[in-house]
Design brief:
- There is one protein chain.
- It is built from 13 helices and 6 strands.
- By secondary structure, the protein is α/β, with parallel strands linked by helices.
- It has one domain: Orthogonal Bundle (Phenylalanine Hydroxylase).
- A 4-stranded mixed beta sheet has the order 4-3-6-5. Strands 1-2 form a two-stranded parallel ribbon.
- Strand 1, helix 6 and strand 2 form a beta-alpha-beta unit.
- The longest helix has 21 residues.
- The chain is globular and about 45 Å long.
- The relative contact order is 0.14.
- Bound molecules: fe (ii) ion (FE2).
- The site of fe (ii) ion has 5 residues, from helix 7.
């Protein structure tokens, strides 16, 4: 059953050009035609807000999706954790064409009530996390630059649908997201920047780039490493550092949103991640 989106009308669309990538060597940052295409898709989404429009993608964009998808599927089969693969199975995303955000959202809504809504770029951390409490994840509708489809420093539709979406088919993961969202909303309300930063670090090193032990093996849990070939390979590369996950282990770290990750955290289990989320929620409301 579809959710009514009118409650989103009071939330700004928040169109952002994600200016920090202009400082990077990412080819998509400096290609004028590509930036215009990104802007056009974002403008379409903004004009339809809070509804989600049907996006019309080019043959090249579908080809980009297909190339990355075929490689990712094989790597995920071998390296991703069981809850992710189960969610992927339920979603059945096309290998050949970019799915419509709205169709994927409809599938999720019918199973866990979670909703996808478009966004124009990177949102403020508090705003993005707090929307999870309403069972909403904001997703970019555009796709990474075709010259190097193996890595993107900015979130794109591959990251959102191939990386994030499968986990939102799990009721426990959705419940954790809601609770984290409430804790973030509370931190924003009370001006507790330290708590908001800690929630952001928890999210980054679990939901975005986490690894998790499963039957004695380290498996991929995060959306960044599940949804990007280079990030996936780096996260299982034995020359790249792994550390055991805990809140204290990430508390004082900083995040470089643009660069490939040099450090990954391994949770003992999915349950351990849920326990740490509960600790954060309790601390935010203390
Ligand atoms: Fe993400």
């Amino acid at each position: 059953m579809r959710r009514d989106r009118t409650f989103l009308a009071s939330t700004p669309f928040t169109r952002s050009d994600y200016a920090s990538i202009v400082q990077t060597t990412y080819p998509g940052a400096h290609d004028g035609d590509y930036r215009s295409r990104v802007k056009a898709l974002v403008a379409q989404a903004e004009a339809s807000w809070p509804a989600c429009p049907r996006f019309s993608y080019t043959e090249q964009e579908h080809g980009n999706w297909s190339l990355v998808s075929q490689i990712l599927i094989l790597l995920q089969d071998r390296y991703s954790c069981a809850p992710f693969l189960h969610g992927r199975e339920l979603l059945q995303l096309s290998l050949d064409t970019i799915p419509q955000l709205d169709d994927v959202s409809a599938r999720m809504e019918s199973i866990t009530g979670f909703m996808l809504a478009p966004v124009g770029g990177l949102l403020d951390k508090g705003e993005f996390l707090a929307m999870l409490a309403q069972k909403v994840m904001r997703c970019t509708p555009y796709i990474r630059h075709p010259s190097y489809p193996f890595f993107t420093p900015e979130p794109d539709i591959i990251h959102e649908l191939r990386g994030h979406a499968p986990m939102f088919l799990h009721p426990e993961f959705v419940e954790m997201s809601v609770r984290i969202g409430r804790a973030a909303g509370r931190a924003v309300e009370t001006g507790d920047q330290k708590m908001l930063d800690l929630i952001g670090l928890f999210y980054w090193y679990t939901v975005e780039y986490g690894l998790v032990k499963q039957d004695g093996e380290v498996k991929i849990f995060g959306a960044g490493n599940n949804g990007g070939i280079q990030d996936l390979l780096r996260s299982i590369d034995p020359t790249i550092e792994h550390r055991p996950f805990s809140l204290d282990a990430v508390r004082d770290l900083s995040i470089d949103y643009d660069a490939p990750q040099d450090l990954f955290f391994v949770a003992e289990s999915f349950e351990q991640v849920l326990d740490y989320a509960d600790q954060l929620v309790t601390a935010a409301h203390a």
